[in-house]
Amino acid sequence: MAHLEVLIPRERIAQRVAELGAEISRDFAGHAVLLVGVLKGAAIFLCDLARTIDPALDVRMDFIGVSSYGTAKTSSGEVQLTKDLSEPLAGVHVILVEDILDTGVTLHFLKQLLLARQPASLKLAALLQKPNRRKVAIQADYVGFTFPDEFAVGYGLDHAERYRNLPDICIVRE
Ligand code: IMP
Ligand code: MG
Questions:
Q1: Residue 1, in any domain of the structure
Q2: C-alpha closest to that of 122 among 130, 112, 131
Q3: Of residues 72 and 172, which shows the higher confidence score?
Q4: Residue 122 domain flag
Q5: Which of 7, 108, 136, 166 has a CA 20 to 30 Å removed from the CA of 121?
């Protein structure tokens, strides 16, 4: 039976997310910002992050969906858009919010897609990054945690659609 090992407890996640929110509040002071969450993994991170941003800031939220073919644990490198944004991006300050930056293929695909719509600026936020697995040279502007080369679940992250509801970030031990 699978056993879950807590790697990042909820208190540390909350503290780090609040730090990122404070950083974003400083960086975008006086501007309107659109948070674009990548479904489904980044939904919980985005909702928590949004609530740590200075309420004086004009914050909007939107979601985009992608699927990458492959097995449950590795993407094949082929990314497809499954749900587009509901608003145009021209002239908007955008922060693309992703759960995890692994090979970089997904964020690279989305970055090109969104840049083509000519936002005023585009920043990348990732809750987790696995630095040794990059296939595409890409860096996030806001990173929660650097994670080991293990498969993470919880706090939005899934394994075959399970475990997204866990409040802590865990590793599944078989
Ligand atoms: P990339 O395109 O390889 O950077 O992978 C990004 C996507 O793969 C993420 O949005 C996740 O959906 C998934 N992924 C990569 N590593 C993990 C992990 O450790 N746990 C859960 N999902 C992961
Ligand atoms: Mg994902």
A1: no
A2: 112
A3: 172
A4: yes
A5: 136
